[in-house]
Amino acid sequence: MTETPSSPTEPKKNGVGHIIRLVVSVVFALGVIASVGTFAYNKLTEADRDKDGNVTSQGKVSVDELKAGDCVVENIAEKEYARVEVAPCAKEHSSEIYATFELEDGDFPGDKQVDELAGQGCYDRFETFVGISYDDSALDMTYLLPLEDSWDVDRGVACMVMADGATTGSFKGAKR
Question: What integer pLDDT is reported at residue 43 of this predicted model?
């Protein structure tokens, strides 16, 4: 006696393929939900700007959208940022963007060189915004700089001026 093979058009009864398709569908759906949720969260927490580009309400902005005159609420520490909290300068903040610029095209020159170029560029632009040289100022500066991972699409530097502790108002022309 020989066994009769099942018909090629007859579905298999084990259901493993069905379970795999179900898992893939659920994972895909969760990815879509997470993407939509992230987009919605970013939109809801985004700072507003007026027609001249000035921040009019506190919220987050992408670091590549920072502009001179933006006041940064959070203390910037040595870590990576994709978005930072900004507010109108009349509200309490920790620092103010005083310049932004792009580093030159080419291969990534290394972390130390990028840091030196960003630091020198911010140092050179300090006096134009504050009204006195950095060496004569009681204020301090720091900066956000591009990373090797994003070098192909981002060479932007954002320079920030700050005083000790939180402040209100702009440092533009402060001469201190």
Answer: 47
Number of residues written out for the chain: 176
CA distances from 168 to 31, 81, 104, 132 (A): 41, 23, 34, 20
Helix/strand/coil for 57:
strand
Sign of CA dihedral 117, 120, 122, 124: negative
pTM metric for this prediction: 0.76
What counts of helices (H) and strands (E) characterise the chain?
A: 2, 8
Rounded (10°) CA dihedral 107, 113, 116, 117: -20
* Alpha helices per DSSP H over 2-158: 16-44, 111-130
Positions of the chain with pLDDT lower than 50, given as ranges: 34, 36-43
d(CA 70, CA 125) in angstroms, rounded, equals: 16
Cα distances (Å, whole numbers) of residue 14 to 5, 20, 25, 98: 16, 12, 19, 66
